[in-house]
Design a protein that fits this description.
Number of domains: 1
Number of strands: 14
Order of helices and strands: EEEEHHEHEEEEEHEHEHEE
Helix content: 10-25%
CATH superfamily: Ribonuclease Z/Hydroxyacylglutathione hydrolase-like
Largest sheet: 7 strands, mixed
CATH class: Alpha Beta
Bound molecules: nickel (II) ion, manganese (II) ion
Radius of gyration: 16 Å
Strand content: 25-35%
Number of helices: 6
Strand order of the largest sheet: 6-5-4-3-2-1-14
Length: 229
């Protein structure tokens, strides 16, 4: 069965269509229940942008998982290819239609944020068991309406910590624009500066009377799903 597992901060493991995917694997974050060296059988890593809390332990995991590929914005993929010394395992994309990676569709979306190598992105995973949108680091943006309309995400993972990204107020508005079935808060509580609280996010979403269920995961928690198309 398809599932996702939260590793704290913005790091998730997603298992869909028989593939193990890591998103923003900063597994050395203070809340992660696993060490980067413990992750095995990874098929694909998706990196939203080059900040250390997102690129995270990507290089180490790629070195430990020789079959794993990585996909990211073009310039960042090139940077990673150089670090691992293998251009064939780093797939550079851009805003556009989805990339098809070993049969799985992955789209990059804009993110209202900054970065040093290439532009920051969100990622959409389009699988036969559900469509998932991980917003990366972003402020609220009108493009979320379009992301909701085109991809119809079943599950969205949204930053709620504030300071560098949306806080619960903006993230609740993002849910209104995206109209997902499930919204999972992330990017909070890792460091004192990230003040946003998941309970506040849940309350604000519920007050809007939306059909979305807010699911708060603790680091290590697994969430199973099936949204067969
Ligand atoms: Ni960032
Ligand atoms: Mn961040």
């Amino acid at each position: 069965m398809a599932y996702l597992r939260y590793y704290g901060h913005a790091a998730f493991e997603v298992f869909v269509d028989g593939k193990k995917i890591l998103i923003d694997p900063y597994l050395s974050n203070p809340q992660s229940p696993v060490k980067p060296s413990e992750v095995k059988d990874v098929d694909l890593i998706l990196v939203t942008h080059d900040h250390g809390d997102h690129l995270g332990d990507t290089i180490e995991i790629l070195k430990n998982n020789p079959k794993a590929k990585v996909a990211a914005i073009f310039e960042l993929a090139n940077h990673i290819a150089e670090k691992i010394g293998d251009p064939n395992r780093a797939i550079g994309g851009n805003m556009g239609g989805p990339m098809i990676i070993d049969g799985l569709k992955v789209a990059l979306t804009p993110a209202n944020h900054s970065s040093s190598i290439g532009v920051p992105t969100g990622v959409v995973i389009i699988s036969s068991e559900g469509t998932l949108y991980h917003a990366g680091d972003t402020g609220i943006m009108a493009e979320m309406s379009l992301i909701g309309e085109i991809y119809r995400p079943d599950i969205v993972m949204l930053p709620i910590g504030g300071h560098f990204t949306m806080d619960p107020v903006e993230a609740a508005k993002a849910v209104e624009l995206l109209k997902p079935k499930v919204a999972i808060p992330m990017h909070y509580g890792t460091f004192p500066v990230l003040y946003g609280k998941p309970e506040e996010f849940k309350k604000l979403v519920e007050e809007k009377g939306l059909k979305t269920e807010v699911v708060i995961l603790k680091p290590g928690d697994k969430f199973e799903f099936s949204f067969k198309k």
